[in-house]
Amino acid sequence: VRSFRDPMRPALIRRRSFWIWTFGPCAQGGLRPADPMASLRIAIMLLAAVWALTLPSAWPQSTDPSVPLALEAPECVGSQDGRVDCLTRDRAGRFVWQYHDGRKWSPARLIPGEFAGSASCVVRGPLGLNCFAIRRDGSLWHLAMNGGRWRQWRPLGGVLAVGRPSCVAPARNQITCYARTRAGTLAVKSWLGDSTWQEWRDAGGDLGGDPSCVRLRFERSACFWSRTDGRLSGLFPVEVGPGSAILTLPRAIGSPVCATMDGDRAVCVGKGNSGKTATWRGLAVLGGIGDDGIK
């Protein structure tokens, strides 16, 4: 009975319940060839067997947000109304989408398309979501949700390394995506509210992994990454006026995951030289940058 309630195996349960129903009488003495009910069951069994073999792998429809065969942690973003949307990549490189409306999880939905890394998503207003992912050919693709309905994937080009981009929305009508190129530099692509995206821009740098970017005040953003020598580095905006520059911090944090604390202050967490978790906190703007230290 417990296995029939397992939300992770709906396809298996469907097949198992069928075999128990059809072969149950066999365990009690076998089927009689002259029995019309037995003949009917055999006919139904053959039809159902063909139907069961043609079923695709089913996704869980339970209140549990887990998705089978996930390769990495899901990309989840929340909105002001308490809604949370999550995208998780399966072993075929496809994304599975679920959302929580504050009371329960929705059924999982498979989104077509094959990608080489996890997604980066940003929220733009109620029921407005923009997700980005990199395909195996190194191109960045964009998937938008408007009014709770998904559109089709759209290509944004690029010659990127396989991995995860990091996208932020500094303003309602602005999105900036950062990603590591195959040459190990930081690539930047922006949308400023019109119908087209700006061309890719190479910001330089020495990236040993995927960047982790954060939104700051005054429609600005900053990016952090681990260099090939392990030290924490970042692309910081200047405190006054446009422009940005790359700054390398004196300590090492591998594969940082960063977030905004308040205003222009950011925090990055990753693996330190000792193998333990290391944390950096400080101002993420040039001209006012301060380092609270590595712990």
Query: Span from first to last CA?
Result: 50 Å
Structural class: mainly beta
**How many separate helices?**
2
Rg over alpha carbons: 25 Å
Number of DSSP-assigned strands: 21
What oligomeric state is this?
single chain
Summarize the main sheet: 5 strands, antiparallel
Order of helices and strands: HHEEEEEEEEEEEEEEEEEEEEE
Mean pLDDT, to the nearest integer, reads 78
**Approximately how much helix is present in the residues?**
10-25%
Short précis:
The protein has 295 residues and is mainly beta.
What keywords describe this structure?
295 residues, mainly beta, five-stranded antiparallel beta sheet, four-stranded antiparallel beta sheet, disordered N terminus
Q: Could you explain the architecture of this structure?
A:
The two termini are 50 Å apart. The protein has helices spanning 10-23, 36-53; strands spanning 75-78, 84-89, 95-100, 109-111, 120-123, 128-134, 140-146, 149-150, 154-157, 166-171, 174-180, 186-191, 201-204, 212-216, 220-226, 231-237, 244-252, 254-262, 265-271, 277-283, 291-294. The protein is built from two helices and 21 strands. Strand 10 (166-171) and strand 11 form a beta hairpin. By secondary structure, it is mainly beta. Strands 5, 6, 7, 8 and 9 form a five-stranded antiparallel beta sheet that branches. A four-stranded antiparallel beta sheet has the order 1-2-3-4, with no helix packed on it. The protein has a four-stranded antiparallel beta sheet with strand order 10-11-12-13, with no helix packed on it. Mean pLDDT is 78; it is low at 1-34 and 44-66.
